[in-house]
Design a protein that fits this description.
about 160 residues; single chain; 5 helices; mainly alpha
Length: about 160
Amino acid sequence: MVDEKLTIFLESMIEAEKAIVKSVEESLEELGNYAVEAALKGISLDSMKHAMLYGSALAILTETRTPLDETQLERQRDLVERHITMEGRVIARLEEMIPRVENEKVSFILETIIADERRHHKVLLNVQELLVRGETVTEEDWWDAVWGDVPGLWA
């Protein structure tokens, strides 16, 4: 049974995040300060991501999902693993550079970026472990589901 209050909450949060995106996008051109524009654009992008995540949560509650087949799983594994590697390289480069930066403002920006990159890395590891594996149905699983109880097949 779907929790109606949670569904309404998720739908309202999608709209709230979209409103944030619209507000930021409408005001970016007027600022004239690259650092402030970049920070607000980052917030806008996070809000777009949040809207998508709320949508994903809503879909989990309200839609029937088809399990992944082996080809889909492999494609998703490859994509996630590639991005884990890429994020890891970026983190390593930032960790090497940040201690050398003397400009306080640049250091702050790089620290903000590395915090995001570490969070991305953690999310990707969680996706790899939880979401992909949780919806996987292999060819063997299908075979067992269809033929597993046939007398004499496995004797």
